[in-house]
């Protein structure tokens, strides 16, 4: 068990969340409320029955339920309410800044206009209690042409998001499939990230860097299978947005004490801890920190490093980034005696 002091540090330290799919923050209670509001019928009779279906065997088994859950989102207010609920929950975990993924194709494919999606999410970010920016993800199980069409559709809203990402079914959909759309996004001055090395092989991490020019890797935990790649990630200080509870729920690792997060840190990688899809994986940011620190040989110095990494890897500039890093440093000066670890 984690001692009280360590638990307090993890809960109270300022942190940034860099890997959260906003559709994955949709709690079963809100799914049912929105289904009723919008007259959408669900395949589950009760909240409990839906929750019982959250027994995943791999990424695809999760995605099937996650896309079904998102089907209740129809109006701008629905996207607003979902995002506002996430931001309130993140604030309670002392998240000071969030870079939020959204999947427009999940909604436009159902006839929901792009502007309904982005305006609802964006407005909640403006009204929210923490700093928040948006990253638009392309669904990798769809074609590159569809991703390009989505990027074109997003252009009138270019000032409402800061980057693009790549998510959904990883195996069989390598980064190489999306070279042209990433090049176009780069020309538009957007930040670039991609999921790679969650279920897919280390080679996907390498091609995300070399062919897509991504600045961060989402997940990336399978990098340790390739020592040369690991050395490169350390040398180039490429941040990995690791999601421990997600990795257990989706069976990337069988148990938390088998998770490689401590080894990633030992290898000198810029590791961050994130929640991925908190409504589905049993926890928000602090739940992820606590579960990880309970299972692995990690102490105060690691907590400080992870909090610092979350802001140094964030797409924040100058003063804003320095201000958050100062908050972390002040917190650890005041609350933690790092010499005891
Ligand atoms: N979409 C939502 N969560 C995801 C994950 N963990 N991996 C890939 N796509 C996702
Ligand atoms: Zn993810």
TrEMBL record:
Record CDD domains: ADA
> Which Gene Ontology cellular component annotation is one that this UniProt entry carries?
cytosol
The record's family statement is: Belongs to the metallo-dependent hydrolases superfamily. Adenosine and AMP deaminases family. Adenine deaminase type 2 subfamily.
Spell out the residues of the site Important for catalytic activity: 219
Cofactors per UniProt? Zn(2+)
In which residues is substrate bound? 277
A molecular function (GO) term: adenine deaminase activity
Could you mention a single GO BP entry for this protein?
Answer: hypoxanthine salvage
Q: What is this protein called?
A: Adenine deaminase
Q: Which residues bind Zn(2+)?
A: 19, 21, 195, 276
Co-factor note (free text): Binds 1 zinc ion per subunit.
Main function: Catalyzes the hydrolytic deamination of adenine to hypoxanthine. Plays an important role in the purine salvage pathway and in nitrogen catabolism.
């Amino acid at each position: 068990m984690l001692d009280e002091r360590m638990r307090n540090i993890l809960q109270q330290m300022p942190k940034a969340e860099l890997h959260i799919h906003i559709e994955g923050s949709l709690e079963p209670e809100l799914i049912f409320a929105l289904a009723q509001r919008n007259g959408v019928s669900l395949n589950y009779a009760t909240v409990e029955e839906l929750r019982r279906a959250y027994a995943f065997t791999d990424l695809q088994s999760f995605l099937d339920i996650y896309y079904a859950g998102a089907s209740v989102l129809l109006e701008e207010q629905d996207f607003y309410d979902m995002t506002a609920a996430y931001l309130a929950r993140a604030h309670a975990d002392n998240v000071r800044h969030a870079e939020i993924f959204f999947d427009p194709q999940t909604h436009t494919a159902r006839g929901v206009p792009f502007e309904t999606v982005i305006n609802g999410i964006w407005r909640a970010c403006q009204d929210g209690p923490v700093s928040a920016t948006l990253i638009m993800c392309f669904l990798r199980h769809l074609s590159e042409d569809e991703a390009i069409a989505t990027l074109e559709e997003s252009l009138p809203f270019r000032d409402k998001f800061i980057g693009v990402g790549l998510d959904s079914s990883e195996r069989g959909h390598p980064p190489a499939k999306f070279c042209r759309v990433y090049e176009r996004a780069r020309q538009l001055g957007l930040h670039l990230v991609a999921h790679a090395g969650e279920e897919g092989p280390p080679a996907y991490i390498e091609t995300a860097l070399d062919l897509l020019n991504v600045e961060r890797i989402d997940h990336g935990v399978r990098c340790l299978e390739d020592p040369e790649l690991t050395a490169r990630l350390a040398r180039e200080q490429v941040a990995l947005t690791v999601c421990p509870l997600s990795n257990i729920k989706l069976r990337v690792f069988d148990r938390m004490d088998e998770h490689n997060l401590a080894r990633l840190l030992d290898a000198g990688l810029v590791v961050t801890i994130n929640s991925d899809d908190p409504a589905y994986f049993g926890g928000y940011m602090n739940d992820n920190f606590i579960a990880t620190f309970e299972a692995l040989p990690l102490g105060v110095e690691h907590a400080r490093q992870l909090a610092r990494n979350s802001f140094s890897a964030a797409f924040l500039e100058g003063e804003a980034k320095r201000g958050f890093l100062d908050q972390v440093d002040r917190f650890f000066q005041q609350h933690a005696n790092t010499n005891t670890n």
